[in-house]
Amino acid sequence: MQKQDIIFAWLGSILCILFFLVVNYLTNPDYLWFIYPTFFLLLWPFSMYSIKHKSLKLHSLFTSVILILFFITINYVHSPFHPWFLYASYPILWWPTLMFMEKGRKTVFLAIIGSLMTIVYYSFLNATISPQYPWAIYPSFVVLWWPLALFYAKKKEYYKFSIAASLLIILFFIAVNTVSSPNTIWAVYPIFIILWWPLSMYYFQYRRN
Prior knowledge:
78% of the residues lie in helices and 0% in strands. By secondary structure, the protein is mainly α.
């Protein structure tokens, strides 16, 4: 890839952005729709630069920064009263972080640290920005699968994984049932189905041997 290709990408992106900006101003100045194509146009030269240097790390870094700035802009323009970009920015930052940590991203230690950081981060947002409902239990449930799956996959202990994972799912449904509809005990239905996972693993792994 030649240097001229990157220059062309930059010039083309800038000209297109200016074109959309002028059209937006002339046709509908009350609604800033030009920011949406601007996001994709900025990815063009940055992606070309990353391809030229054959670096997926740079691509993840540039794309993450542009994406976060894009969310901040939309947040500020359309709903400045609620900083929702904080919810989306955190997981995006993990993309370049894991790309640069080539060896560490495969370790259980990083999975545990990352999970704890995620739980603390979203719990803090839950308590400070939107305390009406304890929604932090949902990302906490999802991120706990990271160290859990990695730990048992490395040990190849799939039966124990089914037990631990089932306990996690059961605790999740109990928590959701308690905070969402405590007067209706519906968690027993998915729990009954989940229990068949470790039971079937036990039968096929141990009883058949």
